[in-house]
Design a protein that fits this description.
heterodimer, A: 140 residues, mainly alpha, 3-stranded antiparallel beta sheet, 39% helix, B: 201 residues, Cytochrome C3, 2 domains, 8 helices, globular
């Protein structure tokens, strides 16, 4: 008697669980392949770095916006608000333009600390990273 | 009973899924424990394990981890997990407004704009105040947004494509998954129908 009862109980619970399990599996397959990615707003700058034999540059927005308001870089320094539209040469930086406006050993550490900026994994493509980015149509 | 059991199992599965997702990848090993963050190391990935920095390079281990800097700021669920505007307004951070002029003061404009053509969604409230605490007028005007009321026509597709609001929102400012941050004014809350509205507080 008890065994019969148990069997029906099991069958019912499996039936009730099935949709749930399917949902969880679907979620898993959707979310599992997401790789761990950068902090929100990190920018990979690799137009020239790797061709010149250096690691790609990782620019962390979060680090800079604790210390500076947006206008400092996007008005005073002159960075356009679009990844890829600023043509940054190392020569410019050393001569005090772009990053070099602050990274000059006065406001921040100078351009002799290559490894602090050129710290990215080889092979990274330029662009804004960190999860929910708008990379353009169909890349959302 | 069975239903409760099923719910419990489902909940635990989802819970397990989220913990699995928030865990840093295996490559992370050494830094996870070194990060001082009361909110737990799952919230921000350590530099050495963010899939962006090269853990074998000389620079990565010298850089500050996001958790060290961000854990004490007002927290959010998305983006940097930080409510940046509140962080400034409540004095948690005081980012420099200029590197040229030490006495520079931000020109804060207290003017709300309501964008009314939002279809079925609540209307969009654009608060100048929150934006001008970070940016200056010329960062958005006139090249991207016209100052004239209703002068700039764009849709959600443009924003999702990284244009207009999407220049920052979805890249550095809070991401576009937070629909209600912008779509925050219900039509029924306004006494009379409007086309495009500006409100001085």
């Amino acid at each position: 008697m008890t065994s019969v009862h148990l069997r029906t109980h099991n069958r019912h619970s499996i039936r009730t669980l099935l949709p749930g399990c399917i949902c969880v599996l679907a979620l898993l397959t959707l979310l599992a392949p997401l790789p761990a990615s950068a902090e929100y707003g990190d920018v990979v700058i690799n137009k020239r770095a790797e061709k010149a034999g250096m690691r790609p540059v990782i620019f962390p927005h979060w680090f800079h916006r604790i210390r500076f308001r947006c206008r400092v870089c996007h008005t005073e320094v002159g960075f356009e608000m679009r990844a890829g539209s600023n043509d940054i040469l190392m020569d410019d930086i050393i001569n005090g333009r772009f990053c070099g406006r602050c990274h000059n050993n006065k406001i921040a550490w100078g351009p002799q600390n290559c490894q602090l900026c050129h710290s990215g994994l080889p092979g990274l493509k330029s662009g804004v990273r960190g999860g929910t980015t708008t990379g353009g149509p169909s890349r959302w | 009973m069975r239903r409760r059991l099923a719910k419990l199992l489902l909940a635990s599965c989802i819970g397990l899924l989220f913990t699995a997702c928030s865990e840093p990848p295996t490559r992370s090993a050494p830094t996870g424990g070194q990060v001082f963050a009361p909110d737990g190391p799952g919230k921000w990935l350590p530099i050495m394990a963010d899939g962006l920095h090269d853990p074998t390079g000389p620079g990565a281990k010298q850089l500050q981890n996001p958790a060290e800097a961000l854990f004490y700021l007002p927290s959010a669920f998305s983006g940097n997990k930080v409510r940046w505007v509140e962080a400034i307004q409540e004095g948690y951070i005081e980012p420099r407004p200029s590197i040229v002029d030490d006495n520079y003061e931000m020109m804060v404009l207290d003017l709300d704009v309501i964008r009314t053509r939002t279809g079925e969604l609540p209307m969009v409230l654009f608060p100048h105040r929150k934006h001008t605490e970070w940016l200056e007028c010329s960062n958005c005007h006139e090249w991207l947004f016209k100052s004239k009321r209703g002068g700039t026509r764009f849709g959600m597709f443009d924003v999702l494509s990284g244009e207009y609001c999407g220049r920052c929102h979805g890249a550095v400012a809070f991401p576009l998954v937070e629909c209600t941050y912008c779509h925050s004014v219900r039509r029924s809350d306004l006494k009379k129908p409007v086309t495009e509205l500006e409100m001085h507080k």
